[in-house]
């Protein structure tokens, strides 16, 4: 029987894993013998699982990864790509391109994709990606996984971090920590190199860009500054390449809707393939139907979009250096993250600014997942490296709305987390018992220019004269970069109740609801899988029984064939059932009915096999049964018993 | 106070000296106490940074991920207090303001009018001139001029900080609270300068991005 025995040892902690939940691809890694390694999660044994989820239009069941990506062309609305761009965003915030790509449920602040005949939130779609990674890694490790560190772009705001954490919970994972991608990358490098100094991590992925400046000192990784843009990335290159080759071909400007229509996604994949090829060769082609449209590296690098993108990333890098109060020559190493950093023009420009070539010895696609695995290992207390510690910062300032829509900053950006700030509010009306507080994230002076994080309703304030009640509200950012709020009335010491209304994310109730549903579905999933496994198993048993009947009919006793064939028929019928117990029951009956015959067949086979060999080679002293025979019979019994093994 | 875990006297410091479990942050602990540093203005920035790292190694939530929920909560509280203490004390001006606040002179929370009361009229006129010059340079997108103005304000800040330092040295030596008023006035001036530099920063960042 194929498959591995699942040994459930309740005392053994599951392997902690690191997960890079990327815009384009996702990875999962764990530490083996002190070294992080990515696990094979792609259909072809690769470590990159495309971050694509397809929901079957008939059944609504999800498929993830490469198989889902293949379905993206044919069923674009049911196939969600780049879900990361939607995390923690409201429907109103989505740009036109994102809105056009899918159908959305009209109601609610959180966007819900209409895919596979149901409405799913980005958190649920991301949870499917995580489940996909988890299942594949579990298959590879032959053990259940439960604890993970998940990475997010450093510039993700509170809502986006919270959404990511929720997705982890929905996927049945205990999220040990949310860490920033560039920080994870530095961890992967720093551990490897055992170095001290300043590092710049430059992370240009499919959809986001981050740069972080860190100092490494005797194992303490301290983030000094972080800057980024959550809507900047390699996907924009793909578009630019496609437009360039098509416009040259057409001799006119492109009309994306008219010229490309439904084929757009395919064409973008072709453009991406060309872009990737141009990192190593001077000339590549974009496959458009039967035609192959050429583009050179020089042409790529002179595209205005490419120039603008590279230029913008460098401006952000300079701003981060300014925040860190460092000069380019004080940087001891530049760590590259994300497939886009393979593009030669990006490397060249970085080298020009920092005056040294970037480090290139860890695969930029894998480095974040590897670092996350290191952190997961540290948090699980598994490794011997308790001298390593990560001190991260909040990337965006946290502030409150005050009179006139002006922001009062409470926690400045680049504050080491966890951190907190307290603010005292007072009532302005007699007997006022409630108060609204609006928290924003960002660097701008006016509320409307920043990102609204949450609105709080302080209630239960003791009814006093105006100005007498003094309510101290504490805003705390935890080690995941997520905001927690508490409040206390100072004169009476009464704890205030706070109703959080997230501006963008899901409320706790909504997440709980999803978790409940997920648990229900998880049960469905398990029974479905057990039924499927039972069918496969039954198929094999029927096949073997049939083969024996055909090949060894001379060993049958009277009436035996009829009994076996009847049991085979009964099992075939049972295989249509969704209840795995029904299937397994009939399977056991078939095994029992054909057992004697199977034994005879085996004995006969062994006799044939040992013919001509010395009998005493096989016969044990005084034993009735040859050792070889005994071994084979035991194996067959194990197989017939069939059930304890799982895939 | 007895240790929540073993009931023994936990002694000073974050950990119980008998059973080595993490104790809650003492409710009265100020930033100096959290860092385990003497209450004085005269601290070295580098030493604060070193202490920050040293204590983070022991107290950070990452170190307690496998411990029981109570210690995990204390670890989060300690680390938050630690980071906030560093934020309050690392910069000399904010360290001075922190000391003054403990003496009942809350410079940071003073309203515009109160702070203004501390400042001589000629200074306020100077501030108005500075801001006007900055606004002009910004409008003209003259980064060189912006930087020159910033440099000038920086020099004056240094001078003002020296005043604060002198006043606090005297206070620490004599315990004479009157000199604190002088330090408060200098801090109010520094606050204006800091706001000026923030604006410069915003202009420069805008030019960069």
What is the mean predicted local confidence, pLDDT of chain A? 81
Instruction: Note the main sheet of chain B.
Output: none
**Helicity level of chain B:** 55-70%
The total count of helices of chain B amounts to 8
What's the main sheet of chain A like? 6 strands, mixed
Structural class of chain A: alpha+beta
Mean pLDDT of chain B, nearest integer?
88
Count of distinct strands of chain B:
0
| Largest interface in this structure | A-B, 32 and 21 residues
Q: What overall geometry of chain B do the principal axes of the alpha carbons give? A: elongated
> What is the total domain count of chain A?
4
Run of helices and strands of chain B: HHHHHHHH
What's the shape of chain A?
A: globular
Overall CATH class of the largest domain in chain A? Alpha Beta
Overview of this structure, please?
The complex is a heterodimer of chains A (647) and B (209). With 647 residues, chain A is an alpha+beta fold. Chain A folds into four domains: 4-233 and 307-391, Nucleotidyltransferase, domain 5; 235-306, ATPase, substrate binding domain, subdomain 4 (Actin, Chain A, domain 4); 398-505, Substrate Binding Domain Of DNAk, Chain A, domain 1; 511-646, Substrate Binding Domain Of Dnak, Chain:A, Domain 2. In chain A, strands 2, 3, 4, 5, 11 and 12 form a six-stranded mixed sheet that branches. Chain A has a five-stranded mixed sheet with strand order 18-13-14-15-19. The radius of gyration of chain A is 31 Å and the shape is globular. Residues 1-11, 614-629 and 642-647 of chain A have low confidence and may be disordered. Chain B has 209 residues and is mainly alpha-helical. Chain B folds into two domains: 1-90, Helix Hairpins (Orthogonal Bundle), CATH 1.10.287; 107-208, HscB, C-terminal domain (Monooxygenase). Chain B is 67% helix and 0% strand. Chain B has eight helices and no strands. Chain B has helices spanning 31-35, 45-59, 69-89, 92-102, 112-118, 121-139, 143-174, 178-208. The longest helix of chain B has 32 residues, at 143-174. The A-B interface holds A 176-177, 217-218, 220, 222, 312, 315-316, 318-319, 322, 375, 378-381, 386-387, 389-391, 415-421, 476, 478-479 and B 52-53, 56-57, 60-63, 65-66, 76, 79-80, 83-84, 86-87, 204-205, 208-209.
């Amino acid at each position: 029987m194929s498959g591995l025995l699942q040994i459930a040892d309740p005392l053994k902690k599951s392997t902690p894993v690191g997960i890079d939940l990327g815009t384009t691809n996702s990875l999962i890694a764990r530490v083996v013998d002190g070294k992080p390694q990515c696990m094979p999660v792609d259909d072809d044994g690769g470590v990159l699982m495309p971050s694509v989820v397809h929901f079957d239009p008939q059944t609504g069941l999800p498929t993830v990864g490469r198989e889902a990506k293949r379905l993206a062309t044919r069923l674009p609305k049911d196939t969600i790509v780049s879900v990361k761009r939607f995390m923690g965003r409201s429907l109103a915030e989505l740009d036109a391109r994102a809105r056009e790509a899918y159908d959305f449920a009209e109601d609610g602040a959180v966007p819900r994709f209409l895919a596979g005949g149901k409405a799913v939130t980005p958190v649920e779609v991301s949870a499917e990606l995580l489940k996909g990674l988890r299942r594949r890694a579990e298959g590879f490790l032959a053990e259940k996984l439960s604890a993970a560190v998940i990475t997010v772009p450093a510039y993700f705001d509170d809502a986006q971090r919270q959404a990511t954490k929720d997705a982890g919970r929905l996927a049945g994972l205990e999220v040990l920590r949310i860490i920033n991608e560039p920080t994870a990358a530095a961890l992967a490098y720093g551990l490897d190199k055992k170095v001290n100094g300043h590092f710049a991590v430059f992370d240009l992925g499919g959809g986001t860009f981050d740069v972080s400046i860190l100092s490494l000192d005797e194992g303490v990784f301290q983030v000094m500054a972080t800057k980024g843009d959550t809507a900047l990335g390699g996907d924009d290159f793909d578009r630019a390449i496609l437009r360039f080759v098509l416009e040259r071909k057409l001799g006119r400007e492109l009309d994306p809707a008219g010229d490309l229509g439904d084929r757009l996604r395919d064409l973008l994949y072709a453009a991406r393939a060309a872009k990737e090829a141009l990192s190593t060769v001077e000339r590549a082609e974009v496959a458009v139907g039967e035609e192959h449209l050429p583009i050179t590296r020089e042409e790529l690098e002179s595209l205005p979009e490419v120039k603008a993108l590279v230029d913008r990333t460098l401006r952000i890098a300079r701003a981060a250096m300014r925040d860190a109060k460092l000069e380019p020559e004080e940087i001891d190493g530049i760590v590259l993250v994300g497939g886009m950093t393979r593009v030669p023009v990006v490397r060249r420009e970085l080298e020009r600014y920092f005056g040294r070539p970037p480090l290139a010895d860890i695969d930029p696609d894998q480095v974040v997942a590897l670092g996350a695995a290191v952190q997961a290992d540290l948090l699980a207390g598994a490794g011997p490296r308790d001298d390593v510690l990560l001190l991260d910062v909040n990337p965006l300032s946290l502030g409150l709305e005050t009179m006139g829509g002006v922001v009062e900053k409470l926690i400045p950006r680049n504050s080491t987390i966890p951190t907190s700030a307290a603010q005292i509010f007072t009532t302005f009306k007699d007997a006022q018992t409630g108060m609204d507080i609006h928290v924003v994230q960002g660097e701008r002076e006016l509320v409307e220019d920043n990102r609204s994080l949450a609105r709080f309703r302080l209630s239960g304030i003791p009814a006093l004269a105006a100005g007498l009640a003094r309510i101290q509200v504490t805003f705390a950012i935890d080690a995941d970069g997520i905001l927690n709020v508490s409040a206390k009335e100072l004169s009476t010491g009464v704890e205030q109740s706070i109703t959080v209304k997230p501006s963008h994310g899901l409320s706790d109730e909504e997440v709980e609801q999803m978790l409940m549903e997920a648990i229900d579905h998880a049960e469905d999933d398990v029974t479905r899988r057990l039924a499927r496994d039972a069918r496969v198993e039954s198929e094999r048993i029927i096949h073997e029984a049939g083969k024996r009947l055909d090949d060894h009919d001379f060993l049958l006793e009277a009436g035996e064939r009829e009994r076996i064939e009847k049991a085979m028929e009964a099992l075939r019928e049972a295989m249509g059932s969704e209840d795995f117990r029904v299937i397994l029951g009939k399977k056991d009956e078939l095994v029992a009915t054909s057992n004697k015959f199977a034994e005879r067949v085996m004995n006969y086979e062994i006799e044939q096999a040992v013919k001509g060999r010395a009998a005493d080679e096989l016969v044990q002293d005084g034993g009735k049964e040859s050792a070889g025979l005994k071994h084979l019979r035991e194996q067959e019994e194990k197989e017939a018993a069939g059930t304890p093994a799982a895939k | 106070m007895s240790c929540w875990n073993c009931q023994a006297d936990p002694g000073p410091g974050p950990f119980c000296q008998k059973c080595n479990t993490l104790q809650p942050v003492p409710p009265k602990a100020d930033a100096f106490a959290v860092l385990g540093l003497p209450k004085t203005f005269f601290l070295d920035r580098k030493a604060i940074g070193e202490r920050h790292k040293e204590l983070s190694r022991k107290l950070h939530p990452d170190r307690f991920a496998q411990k029981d929920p109570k210690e995990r909560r204390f670890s989060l509280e300690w680390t938050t207090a630690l980071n906030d203490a560093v934020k309050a004390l690392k910069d000399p001006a904010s360290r001075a303001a922190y000391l003054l606040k403990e003496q009942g002179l809350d410079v940071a929370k003073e309203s515009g009018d109160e702070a203004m009361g501390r400042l001589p009229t000629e200074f306020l006129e100077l501030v108005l001139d500075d801001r006007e010059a900055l606004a002009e340079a910004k409008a003209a997108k003259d980064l060189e001029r912006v930087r020159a103005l910033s440099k000038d304000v920086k020099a004056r800040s240094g001078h003002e900080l020296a005043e604060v330092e002198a006043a606090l040295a005297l206070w620490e030596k004599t315990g004479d609270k009157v000199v604190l008023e002088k330090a408060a006035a200098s801090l109010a001036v520094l606050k204006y300068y800091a706001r000026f530099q923030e604006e410069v920063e915003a202009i420069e960042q805008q030019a960069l991005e």
